[in-house]
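To whoever is covering the structure queue this week,

Two jobs came back overnight. Logging them here so there's a record in the thread.

Job A:
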Amino acid sequence: MTIEQSDHSTELTEHPDRFPNPGLPPHRPRLGDEDPKAAKRSERLVLLLFTVSVLASIAAIVGYFAIPVDPEAGSMGNTHLSTLIIGLGLGLGMLGIGTAAIHWAKSLMNDHDKVEERHEIAGDAQTRSTAIEMFNEGAKDTDIARRPLIKGALGGALALAPLPFLVPLIGNLGGDWDISRFKRTAWAPAANGDRVYLATDPTNRRIKASDVTIGSLFHVMPWNLPEHPDYLDEKAKAVVLLVRVDPQDLKETEERASWSYDGIVAYSKICTHVGCPVALYERETHHLLCPCHQSTFDVTDEAKVVFGPAGRALPQLPIDVDENGYLVAQRDFDEPVGPSFWERER
């Protein structure tokens, strides 16, 4: 735009219809374009990155078999180590392929600027033919035929990279598929009729109703659950959030009127969306929040969903007190905890 000043007045010229095409800047050759040794170093680096991917994928598979996780052991040691090795193998395997592909493209493939005039998008035969030609040109540009080592490393990396995902999945197909385990938790009364006490998690201290003040939140598990032979599996299903509100704020149906005690309510800590731990409590609104996808449940209204993707309320644990004032579970949850599964029954 040109501005012309005359006698303290300003006149604006009209905007041009088109601006001149500035063209492309001069091409700056890379070191590898002029120095064959530099190109060879880049080729060796790409080969090394693909090799790292192959070795990482193999390490993940070996780690899965060499460090088995024993669910009966009740220890997280092997679980942590196995998860660490598999995770590192997966991460390095994918990272090796990605960084090798990027370095290959930036240092060995054609880097000349190309211009394609803008046109209307159309799917006619000529366009498809042009796309195929461009694809073939790109494949030719990789010059993979003259680099058999890179071609072999790429094939090996791509072939092995999915295995750390698939091997654990296939290896677990022969596991325990007894889904009835999802329909009961450690809150169910013992065979001898002993009551199950509510205890703090993880200190395993029994809780009295007098310990729970209005607005407080307790993370709860069945008392003496750490002594259970399947401690980790059972705890994953039985964790509970215990909250006390003003009894007048509770909106209880007649069926659930006896499930709480003086404003104290207990709900499953496992979100009904995808099973994340619901662990955030907003005292003013009486809302429980799942940090994973922000599903929000109303403690005063039978933990019904008020926001987010969860499709069901949190299962409620019916509670009572014994003669000494300790909180106990009346019975198990009224429905399976956690997200939906294929044979879920309410």
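Job B:
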Amino acid sequence: MAPSEPLPPASTAKGPPSGFGKGFVMDTWYFVALSRDVAPGSLKRHEVMGEPVLIGRTRASDGAAGTVFALRDICPHRAAPLSAGRIVDRPGEGQTVECPYHGWRFGTDGRCAAIPSLVEDQPGTTGRIRVRSWPVVESQGMVFVFMRSDPRDDTPPDHAPPVFPGIVGGEAKLVEAMDFDSHIDHAVVGLMDPAHGPYVHQQWWWRSEHSMHEKAKAFAPSELGFTMVRHAPSSNSRAYRILGGTPETEITFRLPGYRWEHIQVGPRQVLALTCLTPVTETRTRITQIFWSDHWVFGLARPFLRQGVRAFLKQDGGMVNLQNEGLRYDPSLIWIDDADRQARWYQQLKREWGRSRAEQRPFVNPIEPVTLRWNS
């Protein structure tokens, strides 16, 4: 590969479903919420890929916990948002979502259960009316929605949501989220960029351009992505020092947009998970979640929260600056080795699209390699 190579403009770059900065990775699981934020009997509107997605949970009954479901948040009658309604429990229907406008009721599978305005001798049409639903799974305290490429397809998903290591110590210790004015492709590439830190994140406790030196990290393919294999943190990464001991870290990326860092400090663990959820073509939600059984989280949580917020704001500010240039649809130059992970993301995204289109197993295009860069 040449030392530097222009990337075609988004409008002409190749790869399903479309070029870099356009389209989405489909037929896979996206994070939408923490389980603890989806209360029994609740209805909440989300937006994923420009679609209004209602995430709800039925009320607990007979000692069983309520079940999470996902429906298109539009009543097919007059387009009122179903999330503005309520969950009701009627004899013969079970728990349904009641539209606030005319009281139409829909099961958690999207099928219309009742139209109250129909009188007894009028022909029933409920059996033919349905709101679109999505497969939804709760796993490790998180809610994931399976976004299909074909809305008419109702076959079960052919793979499960990701399982993350190091989720310890009960509920998440720290959660921060922010929307970036960016397509998910640019957000992913910014997330895995190893060279921007000394310039964008200039905190005294992190690192600066004056402490830059050469890094060499080994990478290997992993499920739907790649992993920076376990290693001791770099000497200029000051934040790791508060953990004490001799920490070792492993960093993994997985389609469609998950990055996690699993830190081991003797018997203690820290998991820093970042979930990227495409809200629209030009907006991406970044959710950072931390779990740990390390004592430092009890003492340093306010400091850590401040640091995470600062990082998100700095990255968001840089995204806004980048948008000033991207609106002219320029060609982009990516270099080795600092931009190799960004190229891998493109290869993974293309291979996922091709494998789905050709109805064959996904073949990870990543090969083991050691990358070197200054940061």
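Note for Job B: Confidence is low (pLDDT under 50) at residues 1-17.

Please reply-all if you pick these up so we don't duplicate work.
Q.
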